[in-house]
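ok so for the tutorial part 2 we go from a plain amino acid sequence to predicted structure tokens. step 1 is just haveing the sequence, like this:
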Amino acid sequence: MRIALVTETYPPEVNGVAMTLSRLVGGLRAAGHEVEVVRPRQAHEKVGEATKDFVVPGMAIPFYDSLRIGLPVALRLERRWRVSRPDVVHVATEGPLGLASLEAAARLALPATSSFHTNFHAYGGAYGASLLRDFTLVYLRWFHNRTRCTLAPTRQMVAELAELRFRRLGVMARGVDTRLFDPARRDEALRASWGAGPGDPVALYVGRIAPEKNLGLAVEAFLRLREREPRLRFVLVGDGPAKAGLQRAHPDFHYAGMRRGEELAAHYASGDLFLFPSVTETFGNVVTEALASGLVTVGYDYAATREHVREGRNGFVARFGDPAAFHAAAARALAERERWPGLREAARRTALGITWDAVVVRFAADLRAAACLA
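step 2 — the prediction. this is what the tokens look like for a chain of 374 residues:
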């Protein structure tokens, strides 16, 4: 197939959507499909800089100045696709560039599909703008219902979107790179730089340091756990608008900043307990990365945690949205520290069964069906 994949975030930007799309594009190309990535020019790129992607003008996103959105260049896309017509247009983000791609595809009678990666309608409360939730939901529903199918990462998310009157839904699961994320990357020298000795437990958080991640709950859980185990350390990997305030309030935590590739994998593998308090995920790739790295995961019962974490077998699960239950799950995890070696092995085994190859094959089949190709 000839596929145009439209996204407003892509590596080297660091987030779950960018990582997922990069894996899909790589897998599709390896399978012989021709994929053109349509994306905004990133902050580090100069006008005219060589790239195999189709790059359009962009601008910084408010509150997310490290990311950019594409400008609404529907006519430019229409001219390009009229000359070089794709079999299907897949739209991964709902910003101005995504909307422009839907308009161009409609004018050219091109089949269009979409994927649902981010619960933007759930972010309003975290930023003190709850009144925007309904407006955002109406827009997202209208946007996705214009496409031939919308792919969400879990069956749970598909059911939730169906209740919100999204139509023509399907599942596009997530894989994990178990060669990169591997317990063998554990690094005692790295742990020592965190102030952790060989036997000291380390709690880890990986992700954006921002209000929508509910990070305050992880901080509170860690502080309670440290009362029981004074040697416990807390390491946060990532960046975001709440980082400066958190550093002022808790200078004793270790802030590792943004990490990529093997550095990120070493940080995962060098931790012990993974605290994931977010309630706004569509999936949560960090959960499967933590499992692959052999961490004991504590998370709410939804998204990736519901799909892959089993209470007391490869991690610990809390009733969704219940802070008291999250604290109890974290306490269970620490209380069963003597079982951590077995839990870590079970987490790794779980991850070994989550492959990107199967995800790519299913995604290609969904695109082929939407394009009505034999």
